[in-house]
Design brief:
This protein is an alpha+beta fold. It has 2 domains: 36-130, Arc Repressor Mutant, subunit A (Orthogonal Bundle), CATH 1.10.10.970; 135-260, ADP-ribosylation fold (Alpha-Beta Barrel). The chain contains 8 helices and 14 strands. The protein has a 5-stranded antiparallel sheet, with no helix packed on it. A 4-stranded antiparallel sheet has the order 4-9-10-7. A 3-stranded antiparallel sheet has the order 1-3-2. A hairpin with a 5-residue loop joins strand 9 and strand 10. Belongs to the KptA/TPT1 family. Residues 287-298 have a biased composition (Basic residues). Its EC number is 2.7.1.160.
């Protein structure tokens, strides 16, 4: 039952995301007064994470695509995105979502000053729903390497928490990985990505215990996001929840050391944040914006 609810919740989120993507303004799916840099970043993310295959653009084994082909994609052409626009987004994006490198075929001298798009490759560092090998994008986290992060925390919302509990843990929900941060953005200046800044619940995960059990593989991306595909069922089970607490609202301790201690307090409103799409989702069938019994996206 939980799985079908979760699948329905994600399907609704996907429909909402596609509907936004059909809006005006050159395919960015964002209207009105959104800053150009943000629109370019969102449109690049949509292509490089989710639609690169549908766009007919080849990527290499590490997820890199030729920048000139990327700039020729219709939604980016409609925005009249230039090489300089892309460079600005790559350099300034606070979550360091993208990487660029010289194209060895067309730029064998690796001229870092070239402004010719044919001389460059670009990729998204994580967040893909397209099939791509984790090894090509990220570095493995292992006990042997001693690179297990001291903190691995997943941010979610009150509206989605009941479904996470029903499902038995965290799922990638249409992406390739569950995303975690190595700290809480805003309170740790070192943390630039891995969690939305408006997350309401913090799910601390015991990465070391799951590795010791051989339960799942873990990875860290170029921009410091901790990721996992989950176990054989695509799940980060609740047994590895070290602690679950509210971020700004005191809801008590909901989980500790894999034990379910409490539900959300009765007064908590599970309101799905607007416009989350892939990053947040909404409840099944568009319901469940209020109340504790519905919700659906970790």
């Amino acid at each position: 039952m939980a799985d079908s609810l979760e699948e329905r919740a994600y399907a609704e989120a996907e429909r909402a995301g596609r509907n936004r993507g059909r809006g005006g303004g050159g395919g960015g799916g964002d209207g009105g007064g959104m800053k150009r840099e943000v629109r370019v970043s969102k449109t690049l993310s949509r292509l490089l994470r989710h639609q690169i295959n549908n766009a007919g653009i080849q990527i290499d084994s590490s997820g890199y695509a030729e920048l000139d082909k990327v700039l020729a994609w219709q939604p980016l052409r409609s925005l009249q995105v230039t090489f300089e626009d892309v460079l600005t987004v790559v350099r300034n994006n606070e979550k360091q979502r993208f990487s660029m490198k010289p194209n060895p075929t067309t730029n064998p001298s690796e001229d870092a000053t070239s402004t010719d798009p044919t001389h460059w490759l670009i990729r998204a560092n994580q967040g893909h729903s397209i099939a791509i090998a984790s090894e090509a994008l990220m570095k493995p986290i292992t006990l042997e390497e001693g690179n297990v992060p001291a903190v691995a925390v997943h941010g979610t919302y009150f509206a989605f928490w009941p479904l996470i509990v029903q499902s038995g843990g965290l799922k990638p929900m249409g992406r390739n990985h569950v995303h975690l941060a190595t700290g809480v953005p805003g309170s740790d200046a070192q943390v630039v990505s891995g969690m939305r800044r408006d997350a309401e619940l913090l799910v601390y995960v015991d990465v070391a215990a799951s590795l010791a059990d051989g339960a799942m593989k873990w990875w860290i991306s170029e921009n410091g996001v901790v990721l996992t595909e989950g176990n054989e069922d695509g799940l980060v089970p609740t047994k590895y929840f070290k602690e679950v607490v509210g971020r700004s609202t005191d809801v008590g301790v909901l989980f500790r050391d894999g034990q379910h201690l409490a539900d959300l307090p009765e007064g908590i409103k599970g309101i799905v944040p607007p416009g989350k799409g892939r990053g947040g989702g909404r409840s099944g069938g568009g319901r469940g914006r209020r109340g504790r019994g519905r919700g659906g996206r970790a």
